[in-house]
Structure formats: structure tokens, C-alpha cells
Amino acid sequence: MIGASRNGGGRGLEARGLIKRYNAVAVVREVDVVVRPGEVIGYLGPNGSGKTTTVRMLTGLTEPSDGTVVHDGRNIYGDLVAFRRRLGYVPEEAHLYPFLSGREYLELVGRLRELPVTLLEKKIMSLLDLFGILSAADQPISGYSKGMKQKILISAALLHDPDLLILDEPESGLDVTAVLVLRSLITELARRGKAILYSSHIMESVERVCSRVMVLHRGAVVADDSSANLRTLLSRDSLEAVFAELVVQDNPARTASDIADVAAMRA
Amino acid sequence: MASEARRLLTAHFLRRLVDDDLISPNADRHESLAMICGCLASMGLFVSVLVSMKYLFNPYQTPGATAISALFDRFLFVSASMTATALVTLLAWDGLAVDARDASVLGAMPIRTRTIVGAKFGALVRFAAMFAGALNVSSCVIAPALMVSKLPIRAWQLPLLILAQAVTVAMAAAFGFFAVLAIRGLLHAALGRALFARVSALVQATLLVAVACAFLLLPVVVSRMNRVWLEPQSRAALMAPPLWFVGLQEMAIGHIIADLPRRQMPPRIREGEARATRLYAGARTLFPDLALKALVKLTAVTVMAVLLFAWNNRRMVPPPPATATAGWIRRGIGAAARVVIRQPVTQASFFFALQTLLRSAQHRLTLAASLAFGLTASVFAVAVGSATRASDSVPMTAGVLAVQPVLLTALLIGFRHAVRVPAELAANWAVQVAWAGDTRPHIAGAKVAGALLFVVGPVLALLPFYAVVFTLADALAIALCGLAAGAVILETLFMSYRKMPFACGYLPGDLKTILPIAFAAFVFFTYQFAHIELAALRSGAAPTFALVLVGIFLGLRSIDAFRRRTPRAFEFDEMPEPPTQRLGLS
Fold first, then answer.
1. What is the DSSP secondary structure assignment for residue B76, as one 8-state letter?
2. What letters, b where the CB count within 10 A reaches 16 and e where it falls short, cover A36-65?
3. pLDDT tens, position by position, for chain B (586 residues)?
4. What region does B201 belong to: left with phi over 0, alpha with psi -120 to 50, or beta?
């Protein structure tokens, strides 16, 4: 089935006024996220800024305390299943069933997504081959390296050719070659009309693949523009410098020196 | 410095051994631990009071008869302590050595390997001691006290009896613990790391079934042992390890009870007392040998376990590389299943259920426990059924026929429990994200896997047994009835199941209420079924009986399909009720 959204004709993902509170403490405050087909949105923020909480709300795994998430004009919580049929998700942590082999895991996910058997087998073999883990396809995942697990996660997210991809730290554990492949893959998928949210710590990747960048700090969006505009606006020559300007409160060099001093403390 | 590291590591390893947050995100380790220890303590208390009834309600309690009777009580307590500790140790099988995670985390620390290994060993000893203590603490005090409450013993003799009982059951528990540790260590050393990793799960499951059967059959063993083992010619019976410790206890208390002065008693009681006194006097010659055996064997098994533990953990090495599954088996099963199961989601659930049940340690343990229960109940069934039908002219008895329904029901109850336990809690998100909003195909897939493993498998395994005991035609008729009955049981057990098999957080239900009801239903169903099946086989109506069962199965399926006609929402990770409500304090 190739509908309007498969050709990039959909309206993508729109989250408005997202708030998440845990025990009355807001960890995400009034966040708006818009990802259009063909766009790659970089989602940046320091540790504990609320990135993963936002991502989980956008996938429907965590319900927001307030706000709406709309995909192609429909509230995702109205029909979460229909939304997830069109969603590909790579979580931050590579939690997989350790007693399954990589092939078995992909077969499980593919069957749950109701892919035809012959197509599924073809896709699995091709993805495992292209990611360079075909030789380990029948080994239990418990014996996989972090990078191999990440490749399985990315393969699982792509199996059903989703319209919307939400990638939370997808480069985690990947080697240099695989990172380069992933960057090109994201660009290619966007060119084919996929809407992609790319959450990462790696500024270089975000700067290279993302058409727009959102910066989250203490649960709120502090910047939302193209990388080039942000650099111009803040008179910085790199996204890393922009990020430092927006988010980093202390002097990193001083903090590093303080840490080294603490490490050198004697009784 | 090293002792502080050892103390911290021991506490860490002990926490890991009792960790249960792998099955529910909301699991409370202390609550689970308190519940297990509470169950063991109340079991010890219940058995103590139960076995003491015969002393409390005996108007003519005499020293000779009490001394003989006490031997059987001690056999029961010693055996329970030994097998229960061995069971607990078997449940922690994978944690009985410094594992890969310990090696990767602690291997980089500036801590001597022997400190880590020592801490691990200390944690294991404490772990076993905790459960053995919970089981034995009440019986050590109550059983001796109630036993001699009506006998003229001196003030210092009761503490001696209590102390002797405590030391003996503790030594029996130590024997059970070190025996499991020694077996594991011996296999590890003999087979090597890689081969041991491949057979470890099978060995654990086999030992678990054997020890669980021994534990559950204890009351039968005690009642059937009678006084045979006290006869001088029955020295073969002295091979049983619990008897060594009974002998040790007798030596430790110095025959206090048997040597008490006799009072005036009626002639009939006096005769019995004289017989009991003679029997005990004859058995006295056995006790030194038994006591020596207990000390020698316990020392040997302890030394062996410690040395093997130290040898096998002498280096912190990463785990051996995982081995690939055989491709042709996988392809063969996959092709066959695709022919039978058409829907992709049901196929996914079917394969996932098979993979989880056969590969996840947690699920294997559940199934091993239910198999042990099923085998024990089968032995009871044969014993009870044969006894009640001994005069029957037809060799076919309800007891032998009950083996099949008993085994099937026990395994299917175990399976029903296993589907509630997540395959890997942290990985549930994958099923959650790919879920199409309807649990029916998922449950259908799991049920097909359950039917294959726990209905078709056992029925085929029992077919040769019935063919040998009865005739091939009878065996085929029994198998037919078994398949139909299995389908009915499976359908019934899943009527109320509304969640996602193997992919939801697990919260234990109200076991205090469910277990007695489930046990009563189990006994009622299996025995009634066996009697109806017996009548059907005798009258040649077995195919009709099987057809009736198929009709019931189809009826249940229709009811189930009607009840599930609209998919219902459910929580993947259900939150437990607040503690105040669970304790009934609200």
C-alpha cells in the first residue's frame, strides 16, 4: 500500500504544548515539535534535559500530562495502533531479547507487523548483509556487541518501511563506517519523503544530516531553527558553539579542571 | 581494605541472588523475599504441629514408642531441610559462580580475584542459610518441645534436644547446598566452560525435577518406610543421606528419650512399649555408623564443593562465544509451522512462545517445577488408584489412567503461569510498539505452542507406557482422550487471560486464595476424569468420550471468541496496588 504519505504528501508529526510531570515536577514543559515529510529534525539537549521523555511521548510509549501529538492530522492517542504501524523507532537503550538470534528478533518484529513471509525473509537477509552482521545472524543477541545490537534495532525500525522515523541516539556504539552509512541512510530516507526526528548528542551528525535543529534545555525548547540560521543568529561558526552558548552554563574548561582537581584529592 | 571490599561484595552478590526486578518494573525485592521466607516458616510451623499431634493426643505416651516415632519425625525434618535447601540452591543455579557480568564489571577493579570469589561464596552460603533458617527455625523449637511435653525429662534435656535438632537440620541443609554446588562444580571442571554452558540448563532442569519430586514425595516416603530401615538386614536403606543425619542426631542426644524410666501402664500398652524398646535397642547399633557417615560425607562434599568453586573461578574470564542455532532445524520447524498457522502475528507469537519457553531460564524453571509437581502427583495417583482398585479383576485402574490428565494439567498450569512472566522486561517495548491492537492472534499463537509442548508432547511420550501396561488399542484410545482433554484444559485456563503473552510486567496474584482453589480443582478434575475415562474404556466408548471432549472444547472456543469479540485495552506494565491496600489497611 503506497498512500499519499508514502510519497511525502502527508502532514507529518505535530506535537503541541507537550508537558510531562512526574510527581508534580515538570520534566518537559510546553514543547512543540513539528516534523514534516522529507525533513530531518535534530533534537539536541544535555543529559536530563527531557529528550528521551519527549521521544517516548511522541512514540506513544509515555502519555503526556498535557498537550497533543498529531500525525497526519489525527491525534495519535485516538488510534495508537494505526500510528505505530507507520512509525519506526530506535530507542536510546538497546534492550532486545537476549535469547533470540538477530534473525529471529527481526522475524518476530516483521511478523508482528504482518509483513509477508517471503518479503520479510528477503528484507532481513538484505539488511543483515548491508549492515555487515549476516555472519552473526543466527547467534544469540546476548553475544552481540553494542554496535551489532544497534544495527539490529535500526533494521527492525526500517523493516516495515515507516513514514515516520524517531531515532534516539542511533549512532550509539556504531563504528565509523556504520556511522557514515547511517548518516547517508537518513539523508536518503528523507529524500524519499520520510519524516525523521533525530535525537543525538553528536553535533557533527546533527549538523550534517538535519534540516532543522531543536535545542532542549531543562525541559523547554530554547532554540528551533536551521543550523545555518542558528549559527548566524548567535554569531558562532559551528553548531557545537551554538549549543554551548544556549545550554552550557559553566565554563567547560573550568569544570574539567575542577573535576581533575577532585580526582587528584588525597586524604 | 580487603575485608571491607569482601563485605561490600558479599552484600552486592546477595542482593543479586534475591533480585526479582526482572519480571516487573514495580517488583519489591523485600516483599517477595518476606513472602517466600514467610511461606517456608509457616510450612515448618504447620508440619511441626501436625507431627506433634500424635504425642499431644496420646493418653499413654511412653518413652520407647516415642523414641521410635521421633526417628520418623527427624527423618522428615532432616529430609525437608536437605531437599528444600537443595531446591533453593538449584533455583539460583546460574548465580552459583562468578558470572560474565561480575567478570566484566569487577575484573577491571583493583580487587584480588580471591576476594571476589570469597565474597561470592559467602553470599551463596548466606543465601542458602537464610532459606534453611526460615524453614527450620520453628520446627527446631516446637517439635522437640511438644514431643516431650508429657514425658518426665530433666530441665537440661529439652535445650539439648532443641540444640541437637537445630544442628542436625543445619548440617542436612549444608549437605543439600554443598551437594548441588559440588555437582555443578564437577560438571564445570570436567566439561570445560564452553560445553558446560551448553548443558547447564538441561542439568539444572533435570536436578530440579528430581529434587522437587523428592521433596513433594517426602510424606509418602516417610509413611512407606515404616520400620523397615530399622531391621538389621535392611542396610541398603542406609544409603539414604537423610538417615545419616538422623543417626547423628540420635548420637548427639544420647538416647535421652529411649532411656527415660517407664511408669505403670496398661498391659496392652506395656506390650507395645516392650516391642518398641526392643526395636530401638536393635537400631542403636546402626546409629554410630550413620553418624560417622554423616560427618564424613558432609566434610567430603563440603571440601569438594569449596575446592571446585575455587578452581572454576580462579580466573575472571568473559563468557564463551555464543553458538549459532542449527539452521536446518529452524528452517524445518518454520516451514511446518507456516503451513499450519497462516496469520503472521499468530506465527510470531507461536515462535516467540517456543523460543521463550525453551531458552529463558526463568520460564524453564517454571516448567521444571510444574513437571516435578506433575510427576509427583502421578506417583500419588498410581499409588492411591492402585490401592483402591487392588481387588479389581481388570488390570486397568483409575490410578494409572490418572497419570496422563495429572501430567497434562500440571504442565498446562505451569504454562499458563509462564505466559504471564515477561521474556525480558526491558525488551517489552518492541512488542508494545509493533502491537496491532488485538491480543487474540498473540494468545492463539501462544496456545498453539502450549498445545504442542504440553499436550501433544506428553501424550506421545506416555503412549508407549500405556501400550506396555495395557494394549496398543487401549493406548491409542487413551492418547485420543488425552489430546481432547488437553485441548479442553488449555482452553479453560486461557478463558480469563487478557494480556500479551510473555510481554507484560508480572504482578503475582492473590496466591493465598488461588492456590487452594486451584489445587482442589486439580485433584477433582483429574480423578473424575480418570474414572470417567476408565468407564469409557471398559465399555468401549472411548471414541465417544473423546468426541464429547472435542464438543466441550469447541463450545469453550465459541464462548471465548464471543467474550473476546471486541479487543479490550490493557496495561503492559500494570502498577501494583499500594501496600496499605495489599495489607488490607485501607
1. H
2. bbbbbbbbbbeeebbbbbbbbbbbbbeebe
3. 567 788 888 888 888 777 654 455 555 667 767 777 888 888 889 999 998 988 888 888 888 889 888 888 999 999 999 999 999 999 888 888 887 777 766 766 777 888 888 999 999 999 999 999 999 998 899 999 998 888 888 888 899 999 999 999 999 999 999 999 999 999 999 998 888 888 888 899 899 999 988 888 887 777 666 566 666 666 655 678 888 999 999 999 888 888 888 878 788 888 888 888 888 888 888 888 889 999 999 999 999 999 999 999 887 766 655 565 556 777 777 778 778 888 889 999 999 999 999 888 889 888 988 998 899 888 888 776 654 444 444 456 778 888 999 999 999 999 999 999 899 888 888 888 888 888 899 999 999 999 999 999 999 999 999 998 888 998 999 999 999 999 999 999 999 888 899 988 887 766 667 778 888 888 888 888 988 998 998 888 989 999 999 999 999 999 999 988 887 777 777 666 665 655 555 4
4. alpha
Q: Does the distance separating the beta carbons of B424 and A117 come in below 8 Å?
A: no
Helix (H) or strand (E) holding A34: strand A25-35
Q: Which three cell numbers stand for residue A199?
A: 535525537
The C-alpha of B418 sits at a distance from chain A's nearest C-alpha, in angstroms, of 16
Shortest Cα–Cα distance, A153 to chain B (Å) = 9
Residue among A97, A104, A139 minimizing CB distance to B427: A97
Distance from C-alpha of A146 to C-alpha of A149, rounded to nearest angstrom: 5
- Three-state secondary structure string covering B154-191: CCCHHHHHHHHHHHHHHHHHHHHHHHHHHHHHHHHHHH
Cβ distance B168 to B245 under 8 Å? yes
For chain B, state the CA radius of gyration.
Answer: 27
H/E element, B395: none
* Contact present, B50 and B145 (Cβ < 8 Å): no
Cβ contact A256:A67 at 8 Å: no
User: Given A98, A108, A143, which is nearest B352 (Cβ)?
Assistant: A108
Residues 6 or more apart in contact with residue A255 via CB below 8 angstroms: none
Chain B residues with beta carbon closer than 8 angstroms to that of A108: 348, 351-352, 430
Strand partners, A14: A34, A70
C-alpha cell recorded at residue B232: 538389621
The residue of chain A with its CA nearest to that of B328 is A138
- A117 contacts B344? CB cut-off 8 A: yes
**Interchain pair A95, B427: CB under 8 A:** yes
Whose CA is closest to B52, among B133, B140, B129, B122? B140
Cell (9 digits) for B548: 464429547
Q: Which residues of A touch B339 (CB under 8 A)?
A: none
Of residues B431, B576, B579, B424, the one with CA closest to residue B499: B431
What is the rounded CA–CA span in Å between residue B86 and residue B584?
Answer: 35
CA angle A163, A164, A168 (to 5 degrees): 150
C-alpha cell at B451: 498445545
Alpha carbons A14 and A12: distance in angstroms, whole number: 7
In angstroms, the CA B365 to CA B372 distance is 10
> Which residues lie closer than 8 Å to B487 by C-beta, 6 or more apart?
B451, B455, B549, B550, B553
Collect contacts of A223-227 with beta carbons under 8 A, ≥24 apart: A224/A32, A227/A42
For cell 526460615, what's the residue?
A: B134
- What distance in Å separates residue A9's CA from the closest CA in chain B? 24
CA distances to A234, B472, B480 from B468, in Å: 89, 8, 17
A224 in helix, strand or coil? strand
